[in-house]
């Protein structure tokens, strides 16, 4: 359960606040009454949720490179946060094949720099390093991966996220050991989530943004792997997991939660690409069909699912929105954008619906 009382007045340092997840999290944290300082490069897409929702007007916004340790350290010191959430990354698998060195530098050394800056800055109580479900060694198992399974990653992005997990574990063991939490007071955890969707994502080579671009342009979507099953979930679901995890890390005894955590969708809510596309088309309305294209794929690991029993039992976290609810939010967001609505208000409204366990389904019907 997210506690408004907990977040009111908390100082939160967020890296990657100009990105898709970071913009949603900035909006959510400010709506909870937290004071957010952000550190990131310029928004990675145009348009972006960051600009549409005018997130820079809500947070203390800093443009900086995560590879620049002295500047990162200076900004972190000035922000003097209670809680740090590290989202900044090169997050795209396909781009990681074209830019492996940058991907490792940003994702691995970026995590080293963040933790080093934390080490040199007093007063921080909780740190969450966000990696990915792709951090696990993918053994093509049918069952979900648990937090104590091996790290791995065969493409540069996945490998970099496996490395970021090892960096986090090693900094924790060396400088913030859980069994001496009472002495140093810093609880360092990592969070592993899978493919997220939601309004405000315009990243290249992600299925739902590609589909929305095609639908808005009245083009037939091209599907590369119509029968692949991927465990998508709405972006607010793992973000809720990060917020609840921080609430557990912050107090005395938070060291007991300083470890890796999975946040993924329910096992029975994984859909193949063609079903997701059909549902999105139906929600969008109008005449819509898709083509299966024969374009060759770069090697991407097979389906990997997360076992989230630990987060369910120990944090009381579970998914709020089913995939069909997530798709309704995407459609409601994009219709509102086409109607030139105030996208900050739209995002706040969708967050409020999520928090109260409602969906955007009625909004979509009213827009049909
Ligand atoms: N979107 C997903 O489906 C998904 C799935 C699993 C994990 N993740 C992880 O969640 C995090 C956020 O992903 P996202 O989808 O919001 O990505 P995004 O591309 O929308 O945002 C990335 C953010 O990182 C910042 N950034 C990139 N390089 C930087 C650098 N050198 N220095 C400082 N900032 C830099 C960008 O400016 C941006 O703010 C990433 O760590 C990503 O690996 C995302």
From TrEMBL:
Organism classification: Bacteria, Pseudomonadati, Pseudomonadota, Alphaproteobacteria, Rhodospirillales
Pfam families: GDP_Man_Dehyd (PF16363)
Entry protein name: CDP-glucose 4,6-dehydratase
PANTHER family: BIFUNCTIONAL POLYMYXIN RESISTANCE PROTEIN ARNA, SUGAR DEHYDRATASE_EPIMERASE YFNG-RELATED
Coiled coil ranges: none
Lineage top rank: taxon: Bacteria
InterPro entries noted in UniProt: CDP_4_6_deHydtase, Lipid_A_modif_metabolic_enz, NAD(P)-bd_dom, NAD(P)-bd_dom_sf
Residue intervals of the NAD(P)-binding domain: 14-245
Organism: Telmatospirillum siberiense
């Amino acid at each position: 359960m997210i506690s408004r009382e907990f977040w009111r007045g908390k100082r939160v340092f967020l890296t990657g606040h100009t990105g898709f997840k970071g913009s949603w999290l900035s909006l959510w944290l400010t709506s909870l009454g937290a004071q957010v300082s952000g550190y990131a490069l310029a928004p990675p897409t145009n348009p972006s949720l960051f600009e549409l929702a005018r997130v820079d007007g809500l947070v203390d916004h800093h443009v900086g490179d995560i590879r620049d340790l002295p500047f990162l350290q200076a900004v972190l010191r000035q922000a003097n946060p209670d809680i740090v959430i590290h989202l900044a990354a090169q997050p795209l698998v396909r781009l990681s094949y074209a830019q492996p060195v940058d991907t490792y530098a940003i994702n691995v050394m970026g995590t080293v720099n963040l933790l080093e800056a934390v080490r040199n800055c007093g007063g921080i109580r909780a740190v969450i390093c966000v990696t990915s479900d792709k951090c696990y060694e993918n053994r093509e198992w049918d069952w979900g991966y648990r937090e104590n399974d091996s790290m791995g990653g065969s493409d540069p992005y996945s490998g970099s996220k496996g490395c970021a997990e090892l960096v986090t574990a090693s900094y924790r063991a060396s400088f913030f050991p859980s069994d001496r939490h009472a002495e140093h007071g810093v609880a360092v955890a990592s969070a592993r989530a899978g493919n997220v969707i939601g309004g405000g994502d315009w990243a290249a080579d992600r299925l739902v943004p590609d589909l929305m671009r095609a639908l808005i342009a009245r083009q037939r979507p091209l599907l590369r792997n119509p029968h692949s099953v991927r465990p998508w979930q709405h972006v607010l679901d793992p973000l809720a997991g990060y917020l609840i995890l921080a609430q557990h890390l912050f107090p005395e005894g938070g060291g007991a939660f300083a470890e890796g955590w999975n946040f993924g969708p329910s096992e029975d809510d994984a859909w193949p690409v063609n079903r997701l596309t059909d549902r999105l088309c139906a929600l969008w309305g109008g005449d819509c069909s898709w083509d299966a294209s024969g374009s060759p794929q770069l090697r991407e690991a097979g389906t990997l699912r997360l076992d989230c029993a630990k987060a369910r039992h120990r944090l009381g976290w579970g998914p709020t929105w089913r995939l069909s609810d997530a798709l309704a939010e995407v459609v409601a967001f994009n219709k509102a954008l086409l109607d030139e609505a105030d996208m900050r208000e739209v995002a706040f409204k969708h967050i409020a619906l999520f928090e109260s366990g409602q969906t955007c389904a009625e909004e979509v019907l009213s827009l049909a």
